[in-house]
Write a structure and sequence with these properties.
- There is one protein chain.
- By secondary structure, the protein is α/β, with parallel strands linked by helices.
- The chain folds into two domains: 341 residues, FAD/NAD(P)-binding domain; 178 residues, Glucose Oxidase, domain 3.
- It is 24% helix and 21% strand.
- Strands 1, 2, 11, 12, 13, 14 and 24 form a seven-stranded mixed sheet that branches. A six-stranded antiparallel sheet has the order 7-18-19-20-17-23. It has a three-stranded mixed sheet with strand order 5-6-8.
- Strand 13 and strand 14 form a beta hairpin.
- 55% of the residues are buried.
- The C terminus is likely disordered.
Length: 559
């Protein structure tokens, strides 16, 4: 049995930040447990590799939801990263923070210190933006943010199309004003994906006080009374127990974190008792409040002469040139994230902040790229930014290796569908604008745009997640009966345990969630460091007896 000061469960976006920041103090020992493997795959480094991982089980949990009545009984697809870096190692690398008002709303719910001005320093601390250097952006942080190296010429057509329907060009949707459209900024560095693992963890693997264990599935958190004292994990068919002298930090994501708490006996007893798990602490909000961005894609075929990705002899020839270009110089089309355009806009003119998002893709997207079309084309995602529908994450089994029961309850709130219908019409108007004349070919799923009933059925038949689940370990004051953690991300009513990841968001931010998750972990790391300084009962762990670098992870060392 080994002892550490901090055990971090989950090597995703938040976990990588925590492990790196806490181990900056050489007197502190940190163990990071990750269920997936090391992030040494070329599919991860090469940005274009996302198209191979997103629709498959490569480095991907590839979860499914329960059948969704709001989606005509279909099961939704929920890809999540199963690898160091988590979903930041398999996503489209889009850097978007959300609207300032999203964070001010968190503060208004009783979460002191989480308004936008409180969070901005941590966005900046994390960031090294190659383009923007102003009051809203950081320089010198671990997470590199860059313009696309080789964007498609179709991005300019997309921006022109947005202008034609009243969405102006905006050079920085993460700056003072979110409204508008731009070519996507991406978390890349020198033509490679800059995941949270690459940004934070890989440069620091040689720290003697940092232990990283891959292929390690955490089975439960161990408690003495109401205090977390360690975890039990499984690796290679063997069970191991490690102890935490200070805290257990749960960073397993919006699905994994509530699942682990429930498996450990923390949650509503009615959700725990049927599985024969001993109840440790009644906390009814665990696994509740699931929110996710619902999304609908319009796609059009086009000729291979246009600057898009697709299956053709011309593309094969282009890739035969692009691959050595990337291997030798880290430049060219291999650096594409596919989702090369982004935009935020309003469903109605009287709204104060954008409630809809465009994501423009220079390829045909159908069913999360699980349906392949032997054709070039382009697509656009329409995303509902602040859905009112709320779902749950519960246990399907007491087996930690079994997936959780994911029920987003898409379109369960009656206000969500009317906004999606308005967005559907605006997206269609944008894609049918003059900017795409001569490029736009056959539409994949044509629908009578004058028939709201037909539009609604198109949405229910094809819509699904935009990959941003949050909220299942909600941050809120003790007066909120559904809050799981307080504003310091400590689990209510317990000691020695925090939840730090996207699950703590009380409400969705109006954008992609990876940047916000990294910010949360940066902020939490400072809170933990401050608490350690103040602690009067600190007893030092002999680091010479408690650290090792797991062999399965050494491949993540810098070359």
């Amino acid at each position: 049995m080994k002892d550490y000061d901090y055990i971090v469960v989950g090597g995703g976006s938040a976990g990588c930040v925590l492990a790196a920041r806490l181990s900056e103090d050489p007197e502190v020992t940190v163990c990071l447990l990750e269920a997936g493997g090391a992030d040494n795959s070329m599919l991860i480094r090469a940005p274009i590799g996302a198209v191979a991982m997103l629709p498959t089980k490569l480095n991907n949990w590839a979860f499914e939801t329960v059948p969704q009545p709001g989606l005509n009984g279909r099961k939704g697809y929920q890809p999540r990263g199963k690898i160091l870096g988590g979903s930041s190692s398999i996503n489209a690398m889009m850097y978007a923070r959300g609207h300032h008002a999203d964070y001010d709303h968190w503060a208004s719910l009783g979460n002191d210190g989480w308004g936008f001005q409180d969070c901005l320093p941590y966005f900046k601390k994390a960031e090294n933006n190659e383009t923007h250097d102003d009051a809203f952006h950081g320089q010198g942080g671990p997470l590199n943010v860059a313009d696309l190296q080789c964007p498609s010429s179709l991005v300019n057509h997309y921006l022109e199309a947005c202008e034609s329907i009243g969405i102006p060009a905006n050079p920085d949707i993460n700056g003072e004003e979110q409204f508008g459209a731009m070519a996507t900024q991406v978390t890349q560095k020198s033509g490679e994906r800059c995941s949270a693992a690459r940004a934070y963890l890989t440069p620091n693997l040689q720290r003697k006080n940092l232990t990283v264990v891959t292929q390690a599935t955490t089975q439960r958190v161990l408690f003495e009374g109401k205090r977390a004292v360690g975890v039990e994990y499984q690796k290679g068919g063997q069970a191991y127990v490690i102890q935490a002298a200070s805290e257990v930090l749960v960073s397993a994501g919006a699905f994994g974190s509530p699942q682990l708490l429930l498996l450990s006996g923390v949650g509503a007893e009615e959700n725990i008792a049927p599985f024969g798990i001993q109840a440790i602490h009644e906390l009814p909000g665990v696994g509740e409040n699931l929110q996710d961005h619902i999304d609908l894609v319009h796609s059009y075929k086009c000729a291979s002469k246009h600057d898009t990705f697709g299956v053709s002899a011309k593309m094969m020839a282009a890739m035969s040139k692009a691959l050595p270009q990337w291997l030798l110089k880290r430049t060219g089309k291999i650096t594409s994230n596919f989702a090369e355009g982004i935009g935020f806009f309003y469903s109605a003119p009287d709204l104060a902040i954008p409630d809809l998002q465009f994501v423009f893709v220079v390829a045909i997207v159908d069913d999360h790229a699980r349906k392949i079309h032997l054709q070039h084309g382009f697509s656009c995602h329409l995303t509902l930014l602040r859905p009112k529908s709320r779902g749950t994450v519960k246990l399907e089994s007491c087996n930690p290796l079994a997936p959780p029961r994911i029920d987003p309850q898409f379109f369960s709130h009656p206000d969500d569908m009317p906004v999606m219908i308005e967005g559907w019409k605006k997206q269609k108007q944008m894609l049918m604008s003059q900017a795409f004349d001569g490029i736009r070919g056959e539409e994949l799923y044509p629908v009578d745009e004058s028939d709201d009933t037909a539009i609604e059925q198109d949405i229910r038949h094809r819509a699904d997640t935009q990959y941003h689940p949050v909220g299942t370990c909600k941050m809120g004051p003790a007066t909120d009966p559904m809050a799981v953690v307080d504003s310091d991300l400590r689990v209510h009513g317990m000691e020695g345990i925090r939840v730090i990841d996207a699950s703590i968001m009380p409400t969705l931010v109006g954008a992609n969630t990876n940047a916000a998750t990294i910010m949360i972990a940066e902020k939490a790391a400072d809170k933990i460091k401050a608490a350690r300084v103040k602690a009067s009962n600190y007893s030092e762990v002999d680091s010479s007896q408690t650290h090792y670098i797991d062999a399965s992870c050494k491949v993540t060392e810098p070359e």
